[in-house]
Amino acid sequence: MLILQLLASGIQTGVLYGLTAAGFALIFGATRVFHVAHGATFVLAGYAFVLGAQAGLPWPVSCLLALVVAIGFGLFMDAFVYRPIQRHEGAFFTVFVAAFGASLVVQNLIQFCVGRGSVSVSTPLTRASEILSGLYIAPVFWVAIGVSVALFALVTMFLDRTDAGVALRGLSENPELLRAFGLSSRRLSALAFGIGSAMTVPGAILTAATSGIEPAAGAHVVLISLAAAVVGGIGSLRGAALAGLLLGITENLIIAVLDTQWSEAAGFLVLFAFILFRPSGLFGQAVRR
Amino acid sequence: MPGSLLSVRGLSKEFGGVKAIQSVDMDLVEGVVTALVGPNGAGKTTLFNLICGHISPDAGEVQLAGRPIRGERPHTIARLGIARSFQDLRLFGRMSVRDNVLSALEPTAWLWQPGGRRAARARLHKTEAALERTGLSALAGARAVDLSYAETKFLSLARILVTEARIWLLDEPASGLDPVSRARFVALLKEAVAAGVTVCLIEHNLDIVTELADRIAFLDRGRKLAEGEPAAILRDPELIAIYFGEPRR
Amino acid sequence: MMKRRTFLASGAATLAAWRAFAQTQSHVVGTLFPMSGSNAEFGTLYTNAVQLALDHITADRMLMSPIELRSQDSQATPQGGAVGMTRLATVDKASYVLLGFTGVSKAAAPIGGRNKVVMINGGGVGPDLATLSPYFVNIIPLANKEVTVILPWLAKEGLKRVALIYVDDPLGQSINQEFAAGLPKQGGTLVGAFSVPPTQQQFGAIAARVRDVKPDAIYFATPIGTQLSQMAKQLRDNGITQQFVTYSVGNLPSIVAQPESEGMIFTGQAADWASNEPKIKRFVEGWRTKYKAEPVTYALNYYNGLMLFAMLAQGLERAGTPVTGETLLAELMRVRTFQLAGGEVTFDEHASASSAIQISRVHGGRSEKIG
Amino acid sequence: MTAYLLNLATLATIFGILAASLNVLIGYAGIFSVAHAVFFGVGAYAGAQVALNLVPDVLLASLAGGLLSGLLSLCLALPALRVRGEYFVAASLGLQMLVVTVFSEAHSLTGGHGGLVGIPPASLLGIDVSSPWHFLAVCVGALALSLVWIAILMRGGFGRGLMAIRDSESAAEALGKNVPALKTIAVAIGCSLAGVAGTLFAFQLAFINVESFTLEQSVLLMAMVIIGGAGTLLGPLVGTLLLLLLPAALSFIPFIPATEIGTVQQLVYGLAMTLLMIFRPAGLAAPSTGRR
C-alpha cells in the first residue's frame, strides 16, 4: 500500500511538474530563451491567487488574476529583458544571468511587500480520505490531474490546429527555422511566453493550496522544469511533460527506500546521467555534440 | 591514382534517411587544384566534414598519403597536414587578428610551448609575415568581430596560410568579395599552389573555378556525377542544366 | 507577519544609533539575527523582543548610560554570522551580542570569544552549542533537555509508538538519539525516524511512510518554522490524525495560529502567559499592546537576554566597574542565578541556562499550558 | 574597525581567487559552470580535514584542497566534453544539487549540516599566520600568484587555444587543437584554484558547513565574473569587490531599515545583474566594443 500511496502522491506532484516543465519547454523551444525566470512566474501567479483569495475574491476571479499576472510577467520579461539583450546579440549566458537577476528581484520584492513566510489558502479540497484501505486520496489529486491533462490537451490542440500554433511548433522542432524567421518572430515569441507562462498557473495555485508558497519557491520550480525539459528532449512538449511526471513519481517513490534528502538529488542524478549518455533526451532530435 | 595525396573511396553518410553522401570516390593529386562544384545541398561541405573528421562516415575509406585517417579526431587530421576553412569562416571573434593567426601556429598548445622563446619569436615572425601578405598588418590588434567582410575572408585565409598544411580544403573562400579583393585573393591562392600546396575548393563562381582549378568534381545530391578537366565538365550540357536551375524537387 | 511599524521603529533606532555614534558613554549591544531569507520571521520576532526589553529598561532607568542597539543580518548562514559578528565586535565595539541559529552561533563563537564579547543565544537549541566558547551563553534550554521532559509525558498518555521526522542537523540528530535511547526506557518504541533536508517543502510522501509505520504520535524536529507548519498541514491533509508533538519551535505565532496545529503538543521553557508574576505580566502586556499579538517563548528569551544585560551592567555600574564583555561574563558567573521574566534562571559552568520546561498544547489558535 | 576591514578584505581576496578561477572556465574556455561552489566546498572540506587531522599548515592544506578539487573536476569536464550551452548549464546545475546533498549527508567527512567546527589557526611552514594581518597577507599572496599564473597561461598558446575553442570549437579543432584535452585542463586549473580558495576560506572562518557551498553561492560567483567582465583579467576582481562590498556598504547607509538590508541588497544585486546584461553585457571591466 505504501508504494501505491507514494505513487499517488508522485502522480499528483508529477502532473504539475509536467505542466510547468512543458511551459518552460515551449518557451525554450520556440525562442531559445533559457527562461530561468519561469520560477518567478510561478511564484507571482501563486501569490496573486493567495492575495486575491485573502482579499475575499471568489476563487474563479482569483484564478483569473493569477493567470493575468503570470501572462503579464512572461510578456514583460520577453519584451523588456530578453528582447533588448538579443538585440545586442548576447550569448545565451547573458540571457541566463539577466533572467536570474530578474528572479532575484521578484523574490525580494515579494519578501518586501508581502512578507517572508509562506502563504497558503485553506481549502477542503486538500483533505484526504481513505478510498482503499490505506490509500488516502484528496480531491486535489483529481483536480491536479484533470486540470493538467485538460490544459495540456488544450495547448497541444492549439499547437496542432491553429496557424500560429503550427508556426510555434515549427520553431521548436526545427531551430534552424528561427534564423529564417529572424526578428519577425516577435509575435510568435510573445505567444510562446504567454502560453508558457499560463501553464505555470495550475501548479502555482495547487501548490499554494497543498503546501503553501513562499517567495523563494521559484528556484525549485525552475530546476525541475529545466531537468524535465532536458530529460524530455529540449523542444519536445510531450517529452517535457512526461519527464516532469516521471521526475515527480521518482522523487516520491524513492522515499520508500531512501531518506528524503536523496529524493531531489535522485532527480538531478537522472538529469546528469541523461546529459552524459543521452543528451537528446527521451524524445528530442539528436543535438550537436 | 598516381600522385594521389588524399584519396577518398566509397565514402557514404546518411542523416536520418537522407543520403548526404553516397559512395563518393575522389583523389586530390599533389599540386593540383580541384574544385568541388554542384548545386546547393549537393553534399560538398559534408564531404569536407567527412574528410576532416568532423562527421564520421557510415562507410568508405579516407587515406592521406597511403595512411588511413578515417575515424581519427579532427585535430589529429589537422595536425597531419589538412587545413580547412569554413563557409561561415568561424573566426575567433573575441580574439585579436594577430591572435587568430598565431593560434593556428600552436596546434599543440600546452601549458608550456616547445622551443622556448626563440620558437615563440619565430612564430610571431611568421604571423606578422602572413598578416603582411594578406594585407591585415594594420589591423593586427583589432578584434576579429570588428573586421569588415572582406577582411574576415582574408583573415580566414591567413589562418590557413601559416599552418603550412599540405592540403587546403577551402569552403567558398572568395564568395562575396569585390573584384579587386577577389583578384588579390586569387593571386594569393596561386602563390600557394605554386609553392606546392594541394588545394580543393568549393566554389560557386565559375570564373574563379576556371581561373584556379585544374580539375572539377561535380556533385549532386550526394553523388559524384562527373570529374575531369574544367573545360570538359563545363561544356557538358546536362551538368550545366543541373547546376543552373533544373528545378529540383 | 511583521508590522510595518516595527521596521520604522528599528529604522529609527538605527538612525538614533548613528547620531549617538560619537557618544562613547553608551553601552553597545548588538543583535545578529537573520533579517532576510526564509528564516527572517525569527529575526523580526527577536528584534521586536529586544526592542520591548529596551523600552522597559529605559522606562525603569535601570542604567546610567543608555543602551545602543546595533543590528547585523546573519542571513542564518555561517558566513553571514562571521561577517556580522566581526563587525559588531570590532566596528560597533559591542560588549554583548544577542544571536540565534546553530550555524551562525558556531561561526560567531570563536570571533566573539577572541574579542571578549558575551554572546547570548536564545534561539538555537543544538546540544553542541553548550561548549562553543566561554563567552557563549545559552539562555534557552537546549533541545535534549526538552526531549527528557516529553518522554514521560508520552508514556503517561499511552503514546508508545513514536515516529520522528527530523532535519538532519546536529539538533535533529541529537533528538533522534535521545528518542532512540530514551523511548525504550519508558516502554515505548521509535517506530520510524525520517530525516529531511532543511529545504524540503513537500511532505506528502513522508506522510505515506509515517502512516505505514502506524505510530501513536509523530514528533517533529525542525528548527525552521515554515517547514514545521508545512509538515503539520500536509500530514493532516494526508489523513494522519495521530498526536503531533514538537519542541519549542512549535511556539511560533504562525504555527500556533494554523488550524492544522490544533491539538499539537510542544515543550518549551516554562512561560505562563496568564501568570500573575509581575515581570512576566509586564512582558506579556507590553507585547500585546506594542505588537498586537500573542507573545512566544522565543521572544521571551531575547527579552530576557537584554534584561540580563541590564541586570549585569547595573551591578557593574554600581560597583564602578567598566562594562566590558570580560566584566559582564565575570558578573554572570559570579551571580549565576537571575530573577528574569518567567521565573528564576540558573546558568551552569558552561553558561547554559536551565529553567523549568513546560508542556503546552495548541488549542483554538492559542497555546495553553498542560503540564 | 580595522579588524572588521581586515576580515572583509580577507574575504574579498578569497572570493577574488574564486572569481578569477571561475573566469578561467566562463571567460576563457566558454564553459558556463554554475557548480563552482562545489569545488570551493571540496577544497574547504579537504583543507579543513588536513588542518584538523594532520597539520594546520596553509600551504599543505591548500595543496590538498586544490589537488582534490582538481581531481574531482573531472565530474565537470565530462559533461563539458559532451555538451555545450544550455545543456552544460543544466548538467552543472545537476552536479551542484547532487553534491550539496552529498555534502550534507557525508557526516564523517563534512560534518553534515553541523559542519566542521574548530578549524585550528593557520600556520605557514611553522610560522603562525593566524593573526588577521598575517592571514590577509597570505590570502593576498595567493591571489597575486593565481592572477599571475592565469595571466601567463592566458597570454600564451594555452590561453589562445582556450579562447579559440570558446569562440569556435570546430574551427579550433580544424586548426589542430585537442579540444577535449584543453577543456579538461582548463576545468582542472579553474577548479583547483577554487579548491585553494576553499581552504583559505575554511581557515578564515574556522567553521564551515554546507550553507557556504550552495547553488546561491555558485550563482553569486557567476554574477561576480559576469558583472565584472568575463574573459578579462581584472573583471572578476571588480565584480567581487562590487558584490561583496555592496551589503557592507548598504549597512552603513542610515536610512535603510536594518531589518530590510538583506532584502534590499538582494534586490539591488538582482536588478544590477539584469540591467547590466541589457545595457553592458560584456561586463564593467571589458573594453567598450570597437567599430561595428
TrEMBL record, chain A:
Chain segments annotated as transmembrane: 6-28, 59-80, 92-114, 134-159, 188-209, 215-234, 241-259, 265-284
Lineage top rank: taxon: Bacteria
GO CC terms: plasma membrane
GO annotation terms (biological process): amino acid transport
UniProt-annotated location(s): Cell membrane
Molecular-function GO term, any one: transmembrane transporter activity
Membrane topology of this protein: Multi-pass membrane protein
Keyword flag Protein biosynthesis: no
InterPro entries (UniProt xref): ABC_transp_permease, BCAA_transport_permease
Sorted UniProt keywords: Amino-acid transport, Cell membrane, Membrane, Transmembrane, Transmembrane helix, Transport
Main location: membrane
Family of the protein in this entry: Belongs to the binding-protein-dependent transport system permease family. LivHM subfamily.
Protein name: ABC transporter permease
Organism, as annotated: Methylobacterium platani
TrEMBL record, chain B:
Keyword terms of this UniProt record: ATP-binding, Nucleotide-binding, Transport
Recorded GO CC terms: plasma membrane
InterPro entries: AAA+_ATPase, ABC_AA/LPS_Transport, ABC_transporter-like_ATP-bd, P-loop_NTPase
PROSITE patterns given in the database record: ABC_TRANSPORTER_2
GO molecular function: ATP binding; ATP hydrolysis activity
Domain ABC transporter: from-to ranges: 6-246
Database matches in PANTHER family: CONSERVED COMPONENT OF ABC TRANSPORTER FOR NATURAL AMINO ACIDS, CONSERVED COMPONENT OF ABC TRANSPORTER FOR NATURAL AMINO ACIDS-RELATED
Protein name in the entry: ABC transporter ATP-binding protein
Organism: Methylobacterium platani
UniProtKB/TrEMBL annotation, chain C:
Any Gene Ontology biological process: amino acid transport
SUPFAM superfamilies referenced in this protein's UniProt entry, alphabetically: Periplasmic binding protein-like I
Entry keywords, A to Z: Amino-acid transport, Signal, Transport
Pfam families: Peripla_BP_6
Matches recorded under InterPro entries: BCAA_transport (IPR051010), Leu-bd (IPR028081), Peripla_BP_I (IPR028082)
Superkingdom to which the source organism belongs: Bacteria
Signal peptide: 1-22
Domain Leucine-binding protein: 29-364
PANTHER family: LEUCINE-SPECIFIC-BINDING PROTEIN, PERIPLASMIC BINDING PROTEIN OF ABC TRANSPORTER FOR NATURAL AMINO ACIDS
UniProt family annotation: Belongs to the leucine-binding protein family.
Protein name: Branched-chain amino acid ABC transporter substrate-binding protein
Species this protein is from: Methylobacterium platani
From TrEMBL, chain D:
UniProt topology in membrane: Multi-pass membrane protein
Keywords: Cell membrane, Membrane, Transmembrane, Transmembrane helix
GO molecular function per UniProt: branched-chain amino acid transmembrane transporter activity
InterPro entries: ABC_transp_permease, LivM-like
Phosphoprotein keyword on record: no
Species whose genome carries this gene: Methylobacterium platani
Membrane-traversing stretches: 6-26, 33-52, 58-80, 87-104, 133-153, 185-207, 219-246
Cellular compartments per GO CC: plasma membrane
Keyword Membrane: yes
Subcellular localization, as worded in the UniProt entry: Cell membrane
Protein name as catalogued: ABC transporter permease
Predominant subcellular localization, coarse grouping: membrane
